[in-house]
Fold this protein.
Amino acid sequence: MLIVRKRKEMEALVRGYKAENNKIGFVPTMGYLHEGHASLIRQSVANNSITICSIFVNPTQFNNPEDFRLYPKNEKGDVELLQQNKCDVLFIPGDEFVNDILDVMIDMKGADKILEGEFRPGHFKGMVNIVALLFQVVQPHKAYFGQKDFQQLCIVQMLRAQKFPKIEIIPSPTIREESGLAMSSRNARLSKEEKQNALKISQALFSIREHSKQIWSAKTLKDQAIKDFFSSEELKLEYLEIVDAQTLVPVSDLASGLPIVVCIAAFAGKVRLIDNIIINS
């Protein structure tokens, strides 16, 4: 596996790959890789002639400076995981890469103001700008994103439609630990007790999905889940919303049969975790 740290070197490599008519698959990450990332790499390897993974912790998408400072890093472990999963190129630019970020204007249709956007102002603007820069550098045919960050995936699809129509965005289901906890780089910051408490997030999602087979009222499902899983002080719930999978706007009932997403953000100790589940997919 090649490791590239300079933008110009990465761009030259891409030009060479394209000159030879290689199909490029791309997995953008912020590092501290786990099985969720590995599943995206394997998808790309299976469907492209070249797979590129990027690692860059983008400060412009963190509204909390402490969260940025504490974001876990493990370059050695990341390299090993990528090599094991047959990634071809790791693009890992230095901190100066942030200076190349430009202000990319797209219509996010209000999706950047709700759910994560409400509690993390500026997050999606920073995310769009860095993904756009990475798309410019890597020029992939296909780019792979996990559904655990469902709102991010929706906005990346908007970016693709408005600025990069030739790139195909490939969504991938959330990868979970045996316990049900969604895999996340932030899980590394959880204590043993906090990790146990965090299981209530996925348990709440599974419960809503199961009860939605008999109960169509979104308010009833939401209120019951909050009572059952977030009434103690073990977790601090930031939001639990049942929304339309296309618009991310809250729904009142699930009777339409259209795809619905249940989204949760909660703190286990000082670690903020997000998760979701798709209903009627």
User: Anything to note?
Assistant: The chain has nine helices and nine strands. The mean pLDDT is 96.
